[in-house]
């Protein structure tokens, strides 16, 4: 990590700490506001290139408050999560665009990225989304809410939380030696057009039957496209957006476009639907 990066992360950490200090007096789970201007700016710089300032400002002015009931979250117990989206003026953001068939996508990971959950809280109006969920073990988790305020731009706001209870096994994240995985009777192979940072990268997944090795050509649309891919940096600081290239594909090939902002280890989760079942396949890649 170079000095510039360390400085940048320190500034970011300071910003987050001060945000915590303001609104986080009672308990670490009482909810506090964070924003993620950097990730959003990055995504638009890389994926669309033409967003104007006023749109960026709208998204920068949006805040998310994550709260739980009960306020102490315990491993393996259902908890009611509320995500309140407000403008900087403190007033609720009322309208959101449908994006991949949902108003808000919530990604939950644990500290070593061994746990991944992609869920869709229900919109209750007045900027409020709720969902009942649970966490498989104690420890640190990070939540990412991904949404588009109407008249705003694609926004990702995140929050780190602690879950009480026995923590699971810790695993160091290491790049996969082979980008072929088997899950749910399928063999999924990933190829990257480039493993360099700051370049347009095409992710090509090939989905085969694990036994016959025949390509699966009847994938069902998942969230309105051939699949859905989420990418996080190993430290979960960077949430990277990914766009399907041929949304209407039904396999065996599924292609997505993205760009990695820096060198380092990234974990990605590809999700596809087949025979009415969603399969989730993780890969760890080394970008250098
Ligand atoms: Cu989603």
UniProtKB/TrEMBL annotation:
Q: Which domain of life is it from?
A: Bacteria
Instruction: Return the Polar residues bias intervals.
Output: 39-54
Identify the species of origin. Answer: Paenibacillus baimaensis
Alphabetically list the UniProt keywords: Signal
Q: What is the annotated signal peptide range for this record?
A: 1-23
Q: Give me the ranges of the annotated region Disordered.
A: 28-54
- Identification of the protein by name: Secreted protein
